[in-house]
Amino acid sequence: MFNYLLPFLGMTGLVLVSVLWLQPRWLFSIATLIVPGVIYFAKTDKPIIALTIDDGPDAETTPKILEILRHHEARATFFVISSRIEGNELLIQEMVDYRHELGNHMTEDKPSFKLLPQEFEVEFLKADTILSKFAKPRWLRPAAGWPRNSMVKTAHKYYYQVALGSIFPFDTLIPSSWFAQKHILFNVRPGAIVVLHDHGLWGKRTASTLERILPELYRRGYRVVTLSEPTPLKQAESID
């Protein structure tokens, strides 16, 4: 019996690996049917991609990332964890000064889906209050992803939009900048939203990844921008 299952299991594993590597857009289209209102990519034919960087700031790694972006004239949306801002205020101001965009990534690096809706709203607003001292954020990325309808409802209530991404090179799971580079460059398409991470070793790998992929993306004719350029922010209506 087990011998008959082996080909099926092997094929299933191959399909799973292919989906994880290719991250096809039809998969995200299905996800939006389950939780409407989440943006995974921008619908555009223009050669632009949105770069998003989660979990900063970090006093050691964020300056290097900002330096690389400035050198290549690239822009990013930084999804900031508000509890990490204290002591790093100058880095947040530098992001704003160089026309990067701030996004709300909640107060702590803990899975948002574990919070009750009321708890989520409290933490969301706490982060919003801190970030708004520098620039008014309009993008939310729940910590650890996995959005719920109640999160989208809360975001729209305060005129935010929820954004995840269409290219995630597993940089929090696979400790290889080389893998991240290959994955991004293989999957890049107009309107893609790339998700990378700052803080500690993640931030060091992100700096290495950006140093290598940005020249190649420009060679291919892409511009690297904030979320609001390929996905113009429309005023979200409150969801009852």
Tally of strands: 8
Structural class: alpha/beta
SSE pattern, N- to C-terminal: HHEEHEHEHEHEHEHE
Q: What's the story with the biggest beta sheet?
A: 5 strands, parallel
> Which parts are unreliable, with pLDDT below 50 for 5 consecutive residues or more?
4-11, 235-240
What integer value in Å does the Rg equal? 18 Å
Query: What proportion of the residues form beta strands (DSSP E)?
Result: 5-15%
End-to-end separation: 52 Å
Helix content: 40-55%
- Count of runs of 4 or more consecutive helical residues: 8
Mean pLDDT: 90
Shape: globular
Walk me through the structure:
It is globular and about 45 Å long. Strands 2, 3, 4, 7 and 8 form a five-stranded parallel β-sheet that branches. The protein has helices at 2-22, 25-34, 62-71, 89-97, 117-131, 149-157, 177-187, 200-219; strands at residues 38-39, 48-54, 77-80, 101-104, 139-140, 161-163, 193-197, 223-225. Helix 6 (149-157) links the parallel strand 5 and strand 6 (161-163). Helix 3 packs parallel to helix 8 and helix 7 (177-187) packs parallel to helix 8 (200-219). The protein is an alpha/beta fold.
Please outline the helices and strands:
Layout: H1 2-22, H2 25-34, E1 38-39, E2 48-54, H3 62-71, E3 77-80, H4 89-97, E4 101-104, H5 117-131, E5 139-140, H6 149-157, E6 161-163, H7 177-187, E7 193-197, H8 200-219, E8 223-225
Parallel strand pairs: 1-6, 2-3, 2-7, 2-8, 3-4, 5-6
